[in-house]
Predict the structure.
Amino acid sequence: MAKRTVKRKTTRKIHKNRKKHWLLRREILLLILAVALLGTGFYLKEKIQFYYAMYFNKFEHKKLSNSEFEEKRINRIIGDYADKTFGIDMSHYQRREDIEWDSLSIGNRSIPIKFVVLRGTMGNKSTDKHFDEFWKLAKKHNLIRGAYHFYRADEDPVMQANNFLANVKLESGDLPPILDIEKIPRRKSNEKLIEDLKIWCRIVEETYGEKPIIYTYYHYYKDFLKGHFDDYPLWLANYNDVSQPSPNDDWDFWQFTENGIVYGINTKVDVDIYNGSLWSLKRMTLD
């Protein structure tokens, strides 16, 4: 009887070990299946998104055109500055569905767009309705971002600065704050305008530790601002048939057209040149 008891115990032990090994193999197999199913799920998700975009949500690029004169002017400028860095600026005037963010380029798709400037705020209280969404999408697609405040010349500079700071949160790698001034005040003198603009700049500079970029039209700068903001980065808009935005002033950015045809956008946009390399532009960004 003792031998039979020992044999039974040995048999039970063998079955127990086999069961233990079987359970372990089952757990490993289930884990492998789970990983495989998870991978298949991600694969199918990408496939589904791809085919959905291909057949149901296709981006159809519209055929946009300019006058022969404007087309030649734009192409000449792009050719002359092909070694510089190109960008665009947008606001709520562009529709979400008109933009394919991973395809932005100009010059028959030979020159990629490297930076995008977005309107963040306007005046004392207003904000751009597309800013938050476009701001995130620009970062997602590895574009250097800039945000500007549209200055209303008769409104309060402190409230306008606080409006910008409350709604625009610049990060490392973004361009310094941008002040867009293009309107002449109705109820203030030109001297008061300059004083107010410097108040806006001082408040914003104290927050970010960098002088804001001043954006304006060439003639506005020449007639009202020149001599008052000489140590600020300058972004000039000039849509005339010229070789540079100003014949006499140093400039950092040139908005050379408001009729830019950009591959990936189904509407005309403002197109800009940064007067330097991409490396130089990155050095200009916030730490």
Residues 2-55 form the longest helix (54 residues). Helices lie at 2-55, 68-80, 131-140, 157-167, 190-208, 218-225, 278-284. The chain has a mean pLDDT of 88. The two ends are 85 Å apart (CA to CA).
